[in-house]
Structures are given as C-alpha cells and as structure tokens.
Amino acid sequence: MRVTSSLARRPRGVYIATGVGAAVTAIIALALYLPLVGFLAATTASTAGLVPFPFASVIGVTLLGLVIVAGALLLAVTRRRPWMSWTLAVIAIVVALAVTVFPLIAVAVGSADRASDIVPIITDLWQRVTGG
Fold first, then answer.
1. Looking at 6-10, 45-49, 104-108, 128-132, which range is the least confident one?
2. Which among 21, 45, 77, 130 has most CB atoms closer than 10 A?
3. pTM of the prediction?
4. Cα 39 from Cα 112, distance rounded (Å)
C-alpha cells in the first residue's frame, strides 16, 4: 500500500512565480504606492484642503487590494501548474498597480470638482475688487 502525502511536491516554477509576484508587489508598494500616498497627503495638508485627499476611499481600496493580492499569491503557491501560478502572480501585480494609481485618480477628480467650485468665488472676488 502506498501512502500519499497531502503536501505533494510542486514544480519549481510554481515557487518562482509566487516569489516573483510577491517581490514585484512588495516593490510596487514600497517604491510607488507609499511615496505617492505620502506626497498626495502632504499636498493636501500644505494646501489647507484645497487639494482634496479622499482618505476613506483610499484606505478602502488599499485594504481590498491587499486582500486580492494576498489571495492571488496564496492561490499561486498552491497550484500544481506553473502557468496558473504565473497567471495569478500577474493578476496580483496588476491589482497592485491599480491600487497604486487609484489615489492619483481620486485626487485628480476631486481637484477638478473643487476647481469648478472655485471659479465662481474668484469671479465674485474680482467683481468686488474692480467694483463691477
């Protein structure tokens, strides 16, 4: 009788794919996401709120992205076929990039909305100064 282990050996490509996915997502988080969010938050603080920073939505998207990336990498390491592990690792990387871009888009949209609110104020101030 042959006893099979529940932890059968996986091909080396599975571990390589998972390692590459984990390393690239960590680099994206440390080298792109954290500096970008820090810069945008500092910009909001230095402009006294003129440039809005949606903290709640950024935190929500970050946590959701973290769960998806961790899940994709966990699935990648448990697959038996390297191509499936590479696919899941690439999905984790794409999600990490999307989470990184989200704060920039959110601030740009918020700033555009804020800019449309400022135009009437500037027009009113101009009319008061010029007496017109």
1. 6-10
2. 21
3. 0.81
4. 18
